[in-house]
Amino acid sequence: HYHRHFNFCAGPAALPTPVLERARDEMLDYQGRGLSVMEMSHRSAAYMAIAEKAEADLRDLLAVPANYRVLFTQGGATQQFAAVPYNLLGPGGRANVINTGIWSKKAIAEARHLFGDVHVAASSEAGGHLAVPRPEEVVLSNDAAYLHFTANETIGGLAFDYIPGSEEGGPRRPDGSEAPLVCDMSSSILSGPLDVSQFGVIYAGAQKNIGPAGLVVVIVRDDLLDRARTDMPSLFGYQALADAGSMINTPATYSWYLAGLVFEWLKDEVGGLAAMETINARKAARLYGAIDASDFYSNPIAIPNRSRMNVPFVLNDSRLDKTFLAEAEAAGLLNLQGHRSVGGMRASLYNAVPEAAVEALVDFMADFENRRG
Ligand code: PMP
């Protein structure tokens, strides 16, 4: 028998309990085959069926148009900071990136490290990343090969409330031509419905809303597959990955399988991404509401840009941080410590974090404030 605490970790994050139960049940003997999914050849018929079902369910959930390829690759979202420019810069093109916080800055730093010049198309840094740049502040360079942005800054708890440059299709260079939009959706993918057709490339590390670590999902539009440099590691290549069905080499088979179980859970038990979004909106409203109603806790992010997935907050008396965290853990509320770079608290409310977890957290916070405030 087991007892599961409420887990607010930013990643690797909580997985849905029914998914873990099913993985447990299928662990030793997968559907009568006498071995676990971990022990299967990735080229076996049984595994190919798992891989294909996962892709089909993800396509279904996100309504991925037919002219997009879905890749299941590795190296974390961090590897995509390199893979994106390798695949998309082309001759004479420049990376254009919006800076909204730590993960955007890492994407900028990697593109700069590999290819030199990066154009920062807009930045919220001067204002301390408390609100995303307004659409009209996003200015591309004429040689923009693409515009990259981070839909949800996991550490800052800052989320876009619009798709940059999408008003007339893609983002525009000063000469009026369109540039593909590239989005790091590591901490927000599958939190609600998405119009994939607005994007050239979407990528997401799995360890938040998709499944276990070790897997990255990349969704790339067909017409962008032919721009890759030739002098790059072959495993980075979107075309090569697409041609090989994401099996140039051995993929992260078990993570891919578990991601498939998460997609099935989203479809069959949650009822799809619109239903998921309604629940996520309720969870976030409950926690931000509690924070805003107290003068003991606070969150500084502009209301339209508050992340539904990652809710950072501080105790107005930071001397109580350690006690807060220790008492929370004793109450079965895990991983509320903010990122080491910013301190304070952070509650990540990914899809697998149930509403009961948020209720328990809000009750604990009120009780702590009453006793210590
Ligand atoms: N981008 C975002 C928005 C993230 O939250 C993270 C991880 N927290 C990353 C990129 C890096 O992901 P990985 O650790 O999978 O490389």
Automatic annotation (TrEMBL):
Binds 1 pyridoxal phosphate per subunit. Keywords: Amino-acid biosynthesis, Aminotransferase, Cytoplasm, Pyridoxal phosphate, Pyridoxine biosynthesis, Serine biosynthesis, Transferase. Pathway: Cofactor biosynthesis; pyridoxine 5'-phosphate biosynthesis; pyridoxine 5'-phosphate from D-erythrose 4-phosphate: step 3/5; Amino-acid biosynthesis; L-serine biosynthesis; L-serine from 3-phospho-D-glycerate: step 2/3. Its main location: cytoplasm. Its EC number is 2.6.1.52. L-glutamate binds at residue 43. The keyword Transferase applies. Residues 6-361 form the Aminotransferase class V domain. Its cofactor is pyridoxal 5'-phosphate. Pyridoxal 5'-phosphate binds at residues 77-78, 103, 154, 184, 207, 249-250. SUPFAM superfamilies: PLP-dependent transferases. It catalyses: 4-(phosphooxy)-L-threonine + 2-oxoglutarate = (R)-3-hydroxy-2-oxo-4-phosphooxybutanoate + L-glutamate; O-phospho-L-serine + 2-oxoglutarate = 3-phosphooxypyruvate + L-glutamate. It comes from the Bacteria. GO terms for molecular function: O-phospho-L-serine:2-oxoglutarate aminotransferase activity. It is found in: Cytoplasm. InterPro entries: Aminotrans_V_dom, Pser_aminoTfrase, PyrdxlP-dep_Trfase, PyrdxlP-dep_Trfase_major, PyrdxlP-dep_Trfase_small. Pfam families: Aminotran_5. Homodimer. PANTHER family: PHOSPHOSERINE AMINOTRANSFERASE. Belongs to the class-V pyridoxal-phosphate-dependent aminotransferase family. SerC subfamily. This is Phosphoserine aminotransferase. It comes from Halomonas tibetensis.
